[in-house]
Amino acid sequence: MLDYRLKLDLQLFSQEKTEQATPKKKGEARKKGQIARSSDLPGSLILMFVFMGFIMLGSYYKNHIMELFNSLFEDWLLMDVTSGNIMSLFTELAMELLLILMPIFAITILVGVLGNVVQFGFLLTGDPLKMKISKLNPINGFKQIFSAKTIVEFLKSILKLLIIGVLVYLAISKEWERILVLASLPIQQIFSFTAGLTVRLGIEIGAVLTALALADYFYQRYEHNKSLKMSKQDIKDEYKKSEGDPIIKGRIRERQRRMALQRMMQEVPKADVIITNPTHFAIALKYDATKMEAPKIIAKGMDHVALRIKEIAKENGVVTMENKPLARALYERAEIGDVIPPDLFQAVAEVLAYVYKMKGRVKSS
Question: How many CB atoms lie within 10 A of CB 160?
């Protein structure tokens, strides 16, 4: 009973998501559009930079707004509107409005793109746009409405409204005395004061919302990493899927090793000589002057493999010679299928000459 509980505890522990997500899982989540991002950050940056743009491009806006109103009150109100001039009138009005709004559009697009790129880089994926039947489930929708995430988003909205309200109240209360006497001031001063107060409020609100959005981004990043966490078993399963089951791979490697060993053993009867250590190493050499520039190693092995090579050689009448230094040098410095190292030519040639002499053959070099 105790062993069963211990096994159960170990199994439950292996299922706990305590490990950081692997690069593979992070990549798959990114392809699906599951990324750490704050939807508030681009909007708050746009708000702040647009109002900062009003300060940097103040003279540009002033000139175009003045030109628009001059045309409106001095020319358009007194002109006779006909079917011939109505299109030119609207075209001129549209061009003036476009010139006024164009810097705002440019800042909005540029800052909006950068605000997202800074968070998660360049990402183009259509996976979130795919039609999923599960999204139409009313039960899941009801759960999302009353989920912890929705409550947090609601509280964030309330906090932003409170901060904006406080900033507006402080700005107005600070300028309250000037606001009361605005009615007695010229139009230009009223416009200048109102524009200055609006721009200042816009920058302050944008800066505060940007700070909140940055905090929200780090919170979203924490939650995203937490949601991607894996258990030890998940990591093992992922490794098996990507690299293959280690047990199966081990069996495949063992089978490949046996097949290679079998092919090597089939070459032993073709050898001219087997050089041994005599017990630890065995190297099978073959030399055909018509096809080879130097003797070639067709089989080699140590311990039980060496013993098997010698047994096959004995069964097939292949000469076996003991030469400890040469056997060790050939085993360590050359692989199966390689020709012997040049500095061992002399020693191997002497061995082969002795073998040919034993066989009663004369072989030209």
Answer: 17
The two tokens of residue 199 are 């721009």
Give dist(CA 258, CA 272) in Å, integer. Answer: 24
- 320 near 306, Cβ under 8 Å? no
Least confident range from 123-127, 231-235, 270-274: namely 123-127
The average pLDDT across 93-116 equals: 87
| Cβ atoms of 273 and 316 closer than 8 Å | no
Q: What is the DSSP letter of 360?
A: T
DSSP β-ladder status, 296-302 and 319-322: unpaired
**Cα(308)–Cα(315) distance, rounded to whole angstroms?**
11
Kind plus residue range of the DSSP H or E element containing 276: strand 273-276
Length reported for the chain: 365
Lowest-confidence pick of 31-40, 96-105, 169-178, 187-196:
31-40
Residue 330 · residue 273 · CB < 8 Å: no
For residue 241, the 8-state DSSP code is H
Rounding to the nearest 10 degrees, give the CA dihedral for residues 307, 309, 313, 319: -80
Q: At what angle do helices 40-56 and 187-227 cross, to 10 degrees?
A: 150
Q: Copy the structure tokens of residue 110.
A: 């540029």
Residue 144 one-letter amino acid: Q
Q: Which amino acid is at 230?
A: M
SS3 category, 68: helix
Q: What is the mean pLDDT of residues 259-284?
A: 84
User: Using one digit for the tens of pLDDT, what is the confidence trace for 179-214?
Assistant: 888 888 887 788 788 888 888 899 999 999 999 888
Q: Are 29 and 228 in contact (CB under 8 A)?
A: yes
pLDDT of residue 8: 45
Buried b (16+ CB within 10 A) or exposed e, 176-212: eeeeeeeeeeeeeeeeeeeeebebebbbbbbbbbbeb
Per-residue pLDDT, averaged over 50-55, amounts to: 88
